[in-house]
Amino acid sequence: MKRYLVCTLFVAMGTLCVASPLWSEEPQQPDLDTIVKKVDELYRAKTSQGEMEMHITTPNWERTMRMKMWTKGMDQTFITILSPKKDKGISTLRMDREMWNYFPKINKVMKIPPSMMMGSWMGSDFTNDDLVKESSLMDDYSAKLITPPDAESDKYYLELKPKAQTASVWGKIIVTAMRDTYMPISQEFYDEKGKKMRIMLFKDIKEMGGRTIPTVMELIPLNKKNHKTVIRYISATFDKPLGKDVFTLRNLKKKR
Amino acid sequence: MLTLKIAFRNIFRQRRRSFLTGLTMMMGFVLVSLSLGLQYGVYDNIIDMFTKDHTGHVQIHKTGYLEHPSLYKTLNDVKAIGEEIDKEEDVASWTPRVLSSALSFKGKKTTGARIVGIDPAKESATTRVGKKVFEGRFLDKPNHEALIGNGIAEVLKAGVGDEIVLISQGADGSIANDLFKVVGIVGSGTDDYERNNCYLHIATAQEFLALGSRVHEIVISLTDIDDSRNVAAAIGKRINDPKIETLPWEKVEAAFYRAMKADVEGAHVSLAIIMLIVAIGILNTVLMTILERTREFGVMRAIGTRPIGLVKLIVIETGILSIIASVIGFAIALGLNTWLTVHGIALSEPIQYGGITMTAMQSMVAPWIFIVPTVLTISTAVIVSFLPALRVIFITPVDALRDN
Predict the structure, then answer these.
(1) CATH code for position A212
(2) How many CB atoms lie within 10 A of CB B52?
(3) Which chain A residues contact residue B165 at CB under 8 A?
(4) Are residues B19 and B76 both part of a single domain?
(5) pTM
(6) Exposure winner among A6, A73, B178, B355, fewest CB in 10 A?
(7) What share of chain A is helix, strand, coil (3-state, %, to 5)?
(8) How many structural domains does chain B have?
(9) What is the per-residue pLDDT across A135-171, written as a single tens digit (0 to 9) for each?
(10) pLDDT tens per residue across span A13-38
(11) Which residues span the domain enclosing A245?
(12) Domain range for residue B128?
């Protein structure tokens, strides 16, 4: 990192000397780690809780679900569905590497095996992994700054490639973030063969619960026609203390 | 005519000879008639049982459903389609169905299940599902009751009164999950078709799978199965929608139909052999009787009978005999075929064909089962009698008289 910074500094100074009268803005060196960490922790903190709405569009049907979510750090997540009525009470718990779903109507807790982590969560375009954040961009990927052909001057473009030891799903992720706020705008996911598989857009940046976050996440899979899932945050609070029985199997079965 | 009188006289004068000749013809007749009856009776029976089991005679689906079944390929306006079906007078009854697959659970055991949503009343009028319940009872009202196949019952160790869980994909993207009470078990040990079926009331299934009022299949049973193709085409024309296809059972169960056709072709060969044997039998008998009378014909030639007259006489005699034999044969064959249609030949080991179990071979009664043997017997006899008749013409009376 340091060497990289020093090198770019030299190049920058050199270019400055050459084109100094034409230079209108200073080249900022983004802290890549900070940007990646921001994406990872966009909606997480020590603890977080929020209510959101998920709207799924497919060629055959459309569905809107309302749910409540609690998180603790990066490893613990609890989601319960509030509406529609027939899905009310269906809950998902994730602790470290394990994940369970609970269906109140049949009173069944079903463990989700790692093989199903990339399966869709409740019929949406988000995978189980997405929603419970099994993988961490910080831990599993290494970032590189790039400038794509259609780059906009107010954005940074990071290319994330999986680290050698990790078993990751994506061959490459391109993160686009605002230069001034480091706020992520979009993520593009590529498979190992370099094919663009899906796009995640972050929109409607607002203040919520003391943070500035994109309150709308739009996920568009590129391998399925006319599919889209939009998550809209209705409310969120961060770092409020949570009871220790929130992330338990017993909480899954609690009557709501 | 004189020839006729002489022919009749000859027949009744030589009663034993006529009787024996006629007996051969008659037995040939009965044999052919019985073979035809049994062969086609069995086929008709198989087809009838097969189609009544669950296929029906005509089926309606969203176009493309049969090749690639999907939860989303539905018939959306059942009422309108039903009205078009009812306009056809050959329709005996029809019933709608919802189809999907699910996982069934009981305790720690789980197995795949094929959900079939049916209208109990209409289904009973159209297919035999209602009669295949061998434990418990058939479905009744649209509450959370399930009729499970013996395969599911075995794996889940579920019996009547137990509660099972079904999980599937809803048509609105939700995860369909609910509890159902087993009220009956369908399909006995050898019934492979029902093994993994789980019947629900169609309204329950539609709610479970979030289908609203949509269905996947409409099954129609006709008054006459042989009309299946015509009626299917007629109904298809009435519905007049390229997105809906109406097919006769021959296309729906194409594999079974092709297998049956191949079998029928094989049967044709064996029937042809039987008819050949009968023809040879008749030929043999007629030939012998005529050759035996060479001396008699020699006498007739000697007293001045024209050769042509003699040929006519022989042919008419044989013809009359064969007609009498056919008439009696018809009576016997009719009786036997009718009895076999009702009672059948009990098989020591039930035969399985296309998923249907047969315990007896049944015959059938239809005009052509008697017309074919009649034509065969009479024509064989008459044609066969020509040959020795011609020999009689060419022989000189002297040599004929010297015969024997």
Answers:
(1) 2.50.20.10
(2) 18
(3) 106, 108
(4) no
(5) 0.75
(6) A6
(7) 20, 45, 40
(8) 2
(9) 678 888 888 888 888 888 888 888 989 888 777 778 8
(10) 655 555 544 444 445 567 788 888 88
(11) 30-252
(12) 64-241
